[in-house]
Amino acid sequence: MTLSIIGTGSMSRALAIGLNKAFDLEIIGRTVEKAQEFINANNLNATAHQIEDLDISDKRVIFCVKPYALKPVADQLTGQAEVIYSVLAGTAVNTIKAELPSKHYVRVMPNVAASFGASMTTLTGDDHCKEEAQEIFSHVGQALWLSSEKELDIATGLAGSGPAYLCLIAEALADGAVKQGLKRDDAMKLTQGLFAGFAPLLASNHPALIKDSVMSPGGTTAAGYSALESAGVRAGCIDAIEAAYKKT
Which terminus of the chain has fewer CB atoms gathered within 10 Å of its CB, N or C? Predict the structure, then answer.
């Protein structure tokens, strides 16, 4: 199967690296030279094309540009695609349909962990494409099909934006250790190990059960957890999802 990736930004990079081993890729940039630079920089086995006058007839297109660029990029394309896999955040299928002719449409929300094969990708759109979409994006991590665009917009605020939230938590925890006297390099290594070990824990346990197993009565974890609650970290996380969803 050949996948045509339109765009050469950070998300295009993450997807291209993740998909490169499983699919034949076409990279479409503003110019052939720009697309080839992208291919060379990321060690991809792919062909380079330019956007202008590109015929997308019967192609499986991963449309991966900024939302504001939808119309100007679409205006340069010709033909009717087989499937448009749109990675445009906050852009409804009907908006995409108005600009890009295709037989089928799927909205896709991966995150930057796709380049490591560890994205949590959510999808929704034509049920006809459900199995194919999940198969494609399972090559960059986990792929979850949702039943509506509203659900995908909520998921965007969680799984799509989530890496940024976790970076804030990770940096803050490391800063806390440095404040207490730990060397910066050691604090970062511990934080990285913490996150690496937490993923399999969360995959098999409810967060509350993990918390309860760590928190001894009157212990160190209880003291730290109380400080987090006093600072409103729980409410802040809930508000972050609401704010991101409203923006989407």
Answer: N
**Within a 13 Å sphere around the CA of 174, how many CA atoms are in the beta-carbon half?**
19
Biggest CA–CA distance in the chain, Å, is 68
As a whole number of Å, the CA-based R_g of the chain is 21
pLDDT confidence of residue 115 = 85
Nearest-5° angle of CA 106, CA 110, CA 111? 165
Cα–Cα distance measured from residue 186 to residue 199, given in angstroms and rounded to the nearest whole number: 21
pLDDT average, residue stretch 110-117: 89
C-beta of residue 143 within 8 angstroms of C-beta of residue 172: no
**What is the Cα–Cα distance from 124 to 62, expressed in whole angstroms?**
14
Question: In the predicted model, is pLDDT for residue 248 greater than 90?
Answer: no
Strand ranges, E, within 129-211? 141-145
* Whole-structure pTM value: 0.87
**Residue labelled with tokens 């340069």:** 76
Q: How many CB atoms lie within 10 A of CB 115?
A: 21
Which candidate, 96, 82, 151, places its Cα nearest to that of 122?
A: 151
224-236 pLDDT per residue, tens: 999 999 999 999 9
| CA–CA distance, 174 with 10 (Å, rounded to integer) | 26
